[in-house]
Amino acid sequence: MTDKMDFSQLTPIDKLSGETEKDARLLREMAKEATQYLLSFSWCKAICKGWFGWGIGGIVAVFLFEIEPANENVDRLLWVIYGDIPPAYLVVDEFPTPLDALRTYIELMEEWIAAVREGTSIEDCIPVNMAPIRENADALETRLSFFKREFLTNQSA
Description:
alpha+beta
């Protein structure tokens, strides 16, 4: 599972810094909230380690966590995308870098947006912690478009 991971792009959360002190404070706060998000699931017994991968304080951040799973069917390493968007976790198997995880998050959220707009079931979509109504889909799409334009265009993974 970890053989594809590029830990060179990651910073231990306890050494997290930002471009400014405000950015660093916001990112540390987001890291705490992302930790609590994972701990809210019954399959996550504890957080063993955490790394910051990429982010802009108060807007969006990508973290990698090593967890103590509640059973053997749960992955030990998970990406968590957190910020001014619905939080989500992703397994790391196919997404070795923080920007790979963010790109995949956006793709999965776009599937949810399309299902909401088409009025089809969201059962097979990534869980989203907001009502599946057009207004929420539109607001999320605006945010994701901003992320793609500002953060992912011409960025290497």
